[in-house]
């Protein structure tokens, strides 16, 4: 994938947006043509409803490689049309492509949000690419349920706009010390996210998230 990486843009994005430690963001990670190709592949994906804590979400999902359900049937393997994106984002993250064992595509129709949450504990690095439209991602420090109940209403401490065709990496504190949510989107959006399993060592890279 031809998006350029000069290293300096990483640092600018990281500090300009005031994001939590370990969060990295890059605009124009993929081209318009690459977005069109990915959207064409997604058109053939079979999506399912997603239920969390007994509530069916407004977004729909498609899991590949692995899912959040350790006891359910295994999802299909990661399809070929996602492999170039996975390889490029793995290079940025400083890991081998197959370290991203899970791919998840979220379909957000207009009005669909995702509530406050911290990602599943069996996964480590979370990498995402936004397609078709932008959204906002908000962060706040994570608090265990009991502590959160005692504290009462909590507000976001950081916010970043995830532009169309942009990508992000969520590692370190941004991954484990914060929770995040996406307010209701205003236009159809697809989010492709890739996750590594915990315990896999990184490949040597000058841009590995641990260095940031």
Structure write-up:
By secondary structure, the protein is an alpha+beta fold. 20% of the residues lie in helices and 33% in strands. It contains five helices and eleven strands; from the N terminus they run H-E-H-E-E-H-E-E-E-E-H-E-E-H-E-E. It has helices spanning 8-16, 32-42, 83-93, 145-151, 172-176, and strands at 23-26, 48-52, 55-64, 100-108, 114-117, 123-131, 135-141, 158-162, 167-170, 178-182, 189-197. The strands form two sheets. Strands 1-9-6-11-4-3-2 form a seven-stranded antiparallel β-sheet. The radius of gyration is 16 Å and the shape is globular. The two termini are 24 Å apart. 32% of the residues are buried.
Tell me briefly what this model is.
By secondary structure, the chain is α+β, with helices and mostly antiparallel strands.
Alpha carbon gap, first and last residue: 24 Å
Radius of gyration (CA) equals 16 Å
Characterize the main sheet: 7 strands, antiparallel
Summed up, the helix count is 5
Assign an overall shape: globular
Measured by DSSP, the beta-strand proportion falls in 25-35%
Return residue spans where pLDDT drops below 50 for at least 5 consecutive residues: 1-16, 204-212
């Amino acid at each position: 994938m031809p998006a350029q990486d000069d290293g300096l843009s990483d640092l600018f994005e990281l500090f300009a947006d005031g994001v939590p430690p370990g969060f990295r963001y890059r605009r124009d990670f993929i081209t318009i043509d690459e977005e069109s190709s990915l959207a064409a592949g997604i058109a053939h994906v079979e999506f399912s409803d997603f239920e969390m804590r007994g509530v069916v979400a407004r977004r729909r999902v498609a899991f590949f490689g692995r899912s959040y359900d350790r006891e359910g049937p295994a999802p299909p393997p990661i399809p070929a049309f996602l492999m170039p994106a996975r390889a490029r984002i793995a290079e940025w993250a400083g890991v081998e492509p197959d370290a991203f064992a899970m791919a998840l595509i979220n379909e957000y129709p207009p009005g669909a949000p995702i509530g406050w949450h911290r990602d599943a504990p069996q996964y480590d690095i979370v990498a995402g690419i936004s397609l078709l439209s932008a959204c906002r991602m908000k962060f706040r420090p994570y608090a265990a349920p009991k502590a959160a109940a005692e504290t009462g209403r909590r507000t976001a401490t950081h916010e970043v706009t995830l532009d169309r065709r942009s990508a992000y990496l969520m590692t370190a504190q941004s991954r484990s010390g914060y929770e995040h949510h996406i307010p209701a989107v205003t236009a159809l959006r697809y989010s492709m996210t890739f996750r590594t399993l915990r315990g896999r060592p990184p490949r040597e890279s000058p841009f590995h998230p641990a260095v940031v």
